[in-house]
Each structure stands twice: as C-alpha cells, then as structure tokens.
C-alpha cells in the first residue's frame, strides 16, 4: 500500500501495520510465528517482504540486529507474547549496547484481558523499558501509522537502538480507516564549520595524535573518506572493540583494535598521545580497559569526541571539543588534503604504529598446545577467503583468533556483539547471508557459544544459506574457566561441557560437516566443505578439536593457574 492509500478503504490492524513496513522500506523480517499476531502473518502473505522463520526468538532478534548493523536501517523482528518476547530480550540488549537500529514487534493479549495475568501476559513497557530506547503498546489500530513511524525514527535517530512495540491481538483484527504515514527520513546531525576548523587546528598542533573509530551510523563512503583523511593528515587510527570493519587493516595508518587482550604497544601509544579524536564510539568499558584509559570525567589527554547523540557527549567524558554529528556527516566535512606537510615525527609515529599492529596480528609465530594449531588455521583462512568475507562471532576466548588475526578490509564485513552476548554468531550469519546470498559468510563459534543458538543451523538449511561454521571445541566454557583458574586455581566448578559430535549435528540438520583434529587436516576439509556449500547451497560446519590447555593464543591454562 502506498502513501496515497485512501482512508475510505477499511483495513485490519495487521494490514495497516504491514503497509507501514512496506512504506518504510522494510524488505526482510525475521520471526517465530505466534497466534497472537496471525493477522500480521496473513497480511505478509501478499506483501513484498521476505520472511525468515526462525527456530527461537533470541536467534530471530539477533538476525534482525545483524541486518540492522549491516544496513543502518532498522532490523525488524516479530515474536509472540510472554516467553516469545522474553526469549528475544537478548537481541534487544545487543542492539542497545551495540547502538543498532532494531524494531521488535510483540504479539500481545487482548486489550480486555489486561491486568488479570492472562495467558502469557507481560507488561512490555515495564519489561523492556530499561533495555530499549522506547517500549510501547498500540491500543488503537488508527494509531498504527503514527506509532510505527515514531518507532522507526527513534530506532534510527541519535544513537540508534532497539524499540519494542506490543500489538494486542484484537487490535490487529479490527478494521478501521486511516491514512498511511510518510516514509522514514533518518536525521543526520552535521558539525558546524567552526567546529571543523577547531578540529583541524587541534590536529595541526598535535605532535602525537591518535584517532579511535567506533559506534554506528557509518557507511562505506564515510569509512573510505576517513581513511583518506588519516593518510593525508598522518594520523594513526585504532578501531574500537568489535568495530574493526571501520578501517582497512592494511592501510598504512591502521594501528590495531582497542578491545580485549589489546596490544600493549597500542595502549602505550594512546596513553602517550597529546590529542585523541574519538569518532562515533562511546569509549565504554571494554575499549577504555575498564575505564582506566582516560581520566573521568576530565581526560588527561585532550579529547575531541564526535557522536550523533548529544546525550552521550559529556555523559562519561568531558571532551575539550564535543561535536554532535553522525560519523557519515563528520567524515563528509573532512578535507582530504592537509594544509601542510606532516612532520617527520608524525610520519615515524604512523609507521611505527602500523608496524606494531602487523607484528601483533601475524599468526605465523603462534604456537598453542595440541595437534591443531590455530595460528596455521588463521594463516590458511587469510590466504583462502576473499577480503569481503563477513565474519560473525558470539562471545568467548575463541573470538580472539578472528579479532587479532583476521585482517578486516572493508565496511560490512564484521558482525560481533560488543555486549558480549554468547550465541550471536550463527544467527548473525543467517542474517548476513539472507541479506547478501552471494557473499562468503563465516561463523566463528565456540562449543558453548554455538549451542546457545545452534538450532538456527536448521534455519540456514531451510533457506539454503551456504554459511561456513568454524566451531572450536575445547569441552568447556573457556573464558569462564580462564577466569576461574586465575582466581581459584585447580578448583574447577560449573565450566566443563560434554559435547555432541558437531559434524554429525550439522549433517542431522541436512547440512554438511567434518571433524578436524590436526593442523594438516584443516585446509583440505575447508576446501571440501566450501565446494559442497556452493554446490548444494547448504551450510557447512568444521568441528575443530582444540586442546583444553590452549585457552588463549599466548597462554595455557597451566600458565594461568601458575602450575
């Protein structure tokens, strides 16, 4: 239905809602069906929107979040009331901490039954209020165009995030006459000319400047322009935690990522900087190394903080120059040429920063206990996979292999939760492959991480998505074991896992799987499975057996516990 829909034609609430989604440019929806929103499912039958039916609401919400992260437009998810909504809460939390636009629609009980603790009744404003940017419920079908338009605007504006909209079942079936809203027009805040002049003046005066890029509201053009700006102004650039796709790792100005297990040389360089340019990010707990990198509230290093949401500027750090602007608008205002030639000191600093990153990220010297050497595995992946491969991961020590050793080259190639949510990788891979069917999508997972949403492998089979899953199995919740062994040596409690044959698991769902126990077996297994994935358009899984002692790329469990 177009924006010229005649108000004289009555529609059900479900039809009105779906017409708004079409109007706002929604092309894909992720859902687990429920009887509470059957009217919406019926309206989707004839709508030009692709529907992905998932196996669990948490996975569906994570797929929608991944879609929002890659496109910058709100990912859309539908779930049913009660347990359906609470299952989806993990995806809402990811979208909030990752600043991702997401709209979660929740089927709700009939309006007349509210307040009686009816079947699966939940107060969604109360339940999701602390987790989302906005949580609301639609009482009148005539207000659907207004509320959906507001939901999309809130999800995209300022610092993007999740919105939760509850839909009473009886509201969705009532017929009414109402005109459609206008299509979403995201608002971009731009820096003032005087602010840009001040940024450039501070940068000109600095001898040891550093930039950190992060957050959302970037696109490929903004990334490319910031790279040109860094090159012309001799500016070392680091990426914030799990935002490595925001700068080409082979660019001569790239200095590394500011996350968990960060390169000590990068930390030292940032602490020694005389100007810090923070674009898009919040410098929250992980990239700030537990809020120790900068003094709070007044940093000891002069700080220029560029952020799209004015409420984030000054929230933790009082910047010398706060700039309320989206990264896209800020980068568009950057000059591509410097007003003067860089000093030899600045040139040397950039070269040293990039050289330190290259040495830190080289997997060749890495040796771990066991027969399967992950350093060699990462070397092979770097040689075998295209540079536009989309890497997806959840949370766990296994993710270090990707974050430290995979060279991200371009925007739109990384899906990883800054919230540290386990089980994210596989749903994110489904979301990415549904968006870009021809791209190579690799899911890096741990054994505990994978089984939190492993059932979405069936979703990948159903929609014939040739995702490649690299599953590292060490028979434990590895990150928690690492902390446990450090704090309570040799007192293992609650971290051991007994796992299935994951290759057989993949085959049971209709995909392909192989077990890999030795380094020399990985490359041929990957080659066979990639060929099968392309030939059959089905997901594949490499079940990689990792020695339990190999808890990080550089430390064993024995070293951590001091034995």
Structure description:
The protein is 37% helix and 16% strand. The protein has 563 residues and is of the alpha/beta class. It folds into 3 domains: 11-176, Thiamin diphosphate (ThDP)-binding fold, Pyr/PP domains (Rossmann fold); 193-359, Rossmann fold, CATH 3.40.50.1220; 363-561, Rossmann fold. Strands 3-2-4-5-7-6 form a 6-stranded parallel β-sheet. Helix 3 runs parallel beside helix 5 (89-97) and helix 3 packs across helix 16 (425-435). Mean pLDDT is 95; it is low at 1-6.
In short:
This protein is an alpha/beta fold. It has three domains: 11-176, Thiamin diphosphate (ThDP)-binding fold, Pyr/PP domains (Rossmann fold); 193-359, TPP-binding domain (Rossmann fold, 3-Layer(aba) Sandwich), CATH 3.40.50.1220; 363-561, 3-Layer(aba) Sandwich (Rossmann fold), CATH 3.40.50.
The CATH superfamily of the largest domain turns out to be Thiamin diphosphate (ThDP)-binding fold, Pyr/PP domains
Class inferred from helices and paired strands: alpha/beta
Integer average pLDDT:
95
- Identify the overall geometry: globular
Which bin fits the share of residues in helices?
25-40%
Give the strand tally.
20
Strand content: 15-25%
The number of helical segments is: 22
Q: Any idea of the CATH class of the largest domain?
A: Alpha Beta
How many individual domains?
3
Low-confidence stretches: 1-6
CATH architecture of the largest domain: 3-Layer(aba) Sandwich
Largest sheet: 6 strands, parallel
Going across the biggest sheet, name each strand in turn.
3-2-4-5-7-6
Distance between the termini: 68 Å
The name CATH uses for the topology of the largest domain is: Rossmann fold
What integer value in Å does the Rg equal? Answer: 24 Å
């Amino acid at each position: 239905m177009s924006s010229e829909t005649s108000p004289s034609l009555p529609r059900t609430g479900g039809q009105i809602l779906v017409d708004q989604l079409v109007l706002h440019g929604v092309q894909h929806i992720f859902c687990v069906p429920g009887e509470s929103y059957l009217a919406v499912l019926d309206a989707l039958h004839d709508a030009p929107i692709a529907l992905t039916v998932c196996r669990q609401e948490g996975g569906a919400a994570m797929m929608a979040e991944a879609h929002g992260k890659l496109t910058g437009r709100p990912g859309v998810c539908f779930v049913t009331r009660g347990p359906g909504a609470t299952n989806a809460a993990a995806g809402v939390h990811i979208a909030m901490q990752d600043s991702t636009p997401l709209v979660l629609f929740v089927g709700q009980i009939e309006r007349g039954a509210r307040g009686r603790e009816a079947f699966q009744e939940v107060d969604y404003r109360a339940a999701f209020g602390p987790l989302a940017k906005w949580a609301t419920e639609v009482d009148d079908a005539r207000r659907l165009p207004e509320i959906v338009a507001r939901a999309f605007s809130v999800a995209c504006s300022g610092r993007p995030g999740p919105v939760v909209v509850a839909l009473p079942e009886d509201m969705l079936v009532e017929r009414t006459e109402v005109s459609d809203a206008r299509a979403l027009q995201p608002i971009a805040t731009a820096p003032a000319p005087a602010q840009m002049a001040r940024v450039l003046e501070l940068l000109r005066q600095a001898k040891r400047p550093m930039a950190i890029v992060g957050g959302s509201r970037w696109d490929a053009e903004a990334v490319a322009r910031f790279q040109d700006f860094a090159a012309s102004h001799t500016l070392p650039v680091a990426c914030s935690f799990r935002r490595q796709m925001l700068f080409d790792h082979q660019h001569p100005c790239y200095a590394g990522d500011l996350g968990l297990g960060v390169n000590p040389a990068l930390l030292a360089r940032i602490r020694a900087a005389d100007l810090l340019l923070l674009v898009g990010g919040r410098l929250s707990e992980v990239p700030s190394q537990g809020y120790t990198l900068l003094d709070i509230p007044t940093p000891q290093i002069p700080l220029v903080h560029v952020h799209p949401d004015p409420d984030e500027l000054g929230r933790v750090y009082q910047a010398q120059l706060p700039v309320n602007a989206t990264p896209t608008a800020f980068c568009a205002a950057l000059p591509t040429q410097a007003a003067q030639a860089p000093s030899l000191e600045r040139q040397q600093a950039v070269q040293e920063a990039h050289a330190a990153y290259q040495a830190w990220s080289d997997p060749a010297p890495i040796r771990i206990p066991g027969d399967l050497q992950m350093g060699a595995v990462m070397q092979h992946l770097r040689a075998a996979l295209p540079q536009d491969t989309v890497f997806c991961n959840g949370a766990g020590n296994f993710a270090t292999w990707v974050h430290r050793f995979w060279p991200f080259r371009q925007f739109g190639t990384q899906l990883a939760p800054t919230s540290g949510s386990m089980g994210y990788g596989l749903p994110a891979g489904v979301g990415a492959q549904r968006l870009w069917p021809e791209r190579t999508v690799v899911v890096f997972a741990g054994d505990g991480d994978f089984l939190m949403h492993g059932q979405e492998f069936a979703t990948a089979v159903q929609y014939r998505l040739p995702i490649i899953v690299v599953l590292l199995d060490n028979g434990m919740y590895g990150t928690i074991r690492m902390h446990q062994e450090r704090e309570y040596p040799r007192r293992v409690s609650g971290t051991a896992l007994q796992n299935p044959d994951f290759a057989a698991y993949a085959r049971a769902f209709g995909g392909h799987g192989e077990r890999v126990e030795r380094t020399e077996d990985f490359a041929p297994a990957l080659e066979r499975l990639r060929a099968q994935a392309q030939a059959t358009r089905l997901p594949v899984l490499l079940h990689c057996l990792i020695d339990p002692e190999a808890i990080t790329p550089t430390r064993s469990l024995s070293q951590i516990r001091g034995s």
